[in-house]
Every structure is written in C-alpha cells, then in structure tokens.
C-alpha cells in the first residue's frame, strides 16, 4: 500500500503531543486511546487488525489482528481520514512523561524494531507487525524485549520514549549493555541479545536483575531513561496498599508513621 506523506509538529516538553496535518484524502493510524483531538472534517474509523492489511481479505485481517494480540496491543487500529476539501489536523498525546520520536522509515531502510508499548501513531500504509527475538537467551530471559513490534514502510511513524531520550549510532562491533525495559527501538542491523549479570551477589542484591540486554552495531538505537514498567513499579511501591504514601515516608522513619510508633494514643 502506498504511504501517505504527512506533515507534523510536536508540542510540549515533558508531556508532549504530536499534531499531524492531513491533506484531503490522506489518513493516519493511531494506537487505541492516544488521540487528543481532531479538527472537523476528519472521519474516525476502527479497523480490525492492522490498517495496512485491509485489502488482503479476511485472512490478512486476521493475521494483522493476531500480530497485535501477541504484542499485547488492541485487536483494532484506529484510522483518521481527512474527508474535507482542505487540510485538517489530528493530534496524538504521549501516555506518560517522555519524548515523542518522529521516525522517517524511508531513511532507516524501511523497517524499525520497537518496544511493544512505544508505538504512538503513523502515516496510513505503515505496517505494524511483530519481531520475535530468535535467540534462545532472549526467548528465555528477555522479558520486555522478547516480543517487539516491527514497523514496515517508507512513511513517518511516531514512537514514545519515557523520561529522557537517548539516540545513538553504534559502530560495527560496538556493544552497549542496557536494561531490557530501557530499549525503545533499533534498526534491524543491530544485534539484540541477553547477557547474564555475571555475579550472583550483584544479580541478587544489585537491584538490576539477573540479565540485561546487549545491543551490538552497526545501526541506530533509541533508549529511554524511564520505562513504563519501572514507573509503574515505583507507583505501586509508594502506594498506601504497599505501606507507603504516608507524610512521614520521607523521614528517617520511612513508611512508619509517628502515630504507629505511639500506638495511636489519643
């Protein structure tokens, strides 16, 4: 399917949104729940599976839906189509603090591998598939990096990175060891693997887990400083249900309230 060529503008700092401009007849696809607003004249339609599979019959639709189901996403894709006679805009908002990364797939060889919850929106025609990490170590211990999304096409795509974004081009043979949740995206030329932390004491008490990801060049990679899983863990730890959230939690007493120490005497 031919790609729609879209113009865009990104607004904000920590909580960003991207505004996509559509010419008459152009369309964009968005992940479920990320639309912020759209101008009059844009029609919204929900398609079963991947929007790029709609001309391939029932089997193609089922395949597109199955791929999205494996990555933990919704079975449906939302398409925003400009049915007016002039230019119209639709905006997509980031789901949590971080940066929106515009990616021109035509400049990356037509394919990008990204974390399953990082895709935000794209020009109509970009195919959303899955990328299985074939190595045994990744399959057994890869965690968040085992099943990733694959974006195919030559149009614009927008992905989201939590916290602060790091973009780096790895030279041939250059390797970076990364927490699996901090990987946002990388080119297919980058080798992705899982490596053991090395020391039992470090693995058990270092707080970083037993395994981490290794990314080896050549190719471009995108990393995030605040994965959604890490943010969610900290929220749970700080919640009252987990014993946190008290006014005294920042003191030397930690989560133990003064009233608890005194037996709640009145």
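-> sequence recovered:
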């Amino acid at each position: 399917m031919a790609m729609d060529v879209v113009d865009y503008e990104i607004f904000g700092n920590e909580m960003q949104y991207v505004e996509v401009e559509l010419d008459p007849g152009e369309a964009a696809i968005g992940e479920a729940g990320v639309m912020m607003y759209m101008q009059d004249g844009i029609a919204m339609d929900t398609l079963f599976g991947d929007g790029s599979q709609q001309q391939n019959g029932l089997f193609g639709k089922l395949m597109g839906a199955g791929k999205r189901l494996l990555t933990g996403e919704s079975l449906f894709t939302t398409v925003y189509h400009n049915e007016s006679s002039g230019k119209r805009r639709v905006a997509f908002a980031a789901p949590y603090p971080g940066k929106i990364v515009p990616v021109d797939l035509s400049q990356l060889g037509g394919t990008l591998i990204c974390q399953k919850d990082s895709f935000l929106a794209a020009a109509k025609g970009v195919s959303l598939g899955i990328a299985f990490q074939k190595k045994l170590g990744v399959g057994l211990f890869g965690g968040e990096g085992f099943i990733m999304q694959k974006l195919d096409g030559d149009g614009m795509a927008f992905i989201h990175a939590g916290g602060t974004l790091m973009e780096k081009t790895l030279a041939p043979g250059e390797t970076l060891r990364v927490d699996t949740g901090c990987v946002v995206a990388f080119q297919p030329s980058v080798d992705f693997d899982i490596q053991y932390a090395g020391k039992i004491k470090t693995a058990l008490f270092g707080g970083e887990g037993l395994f981490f990801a290794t990314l080896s060049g050549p190719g471009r990679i995108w990393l995030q400083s605040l994965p959604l899983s890490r943010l969610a863990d900290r929220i749970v730890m700080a919640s009252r249900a987990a014993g946190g959230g008290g006014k005294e939690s920042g003191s030397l007493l930690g989560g133990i309230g003064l009233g608890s120490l005194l037996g709640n005497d009145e």
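The helical segments are 57-70, 136-141, 200-205, 228-238, 258-261.
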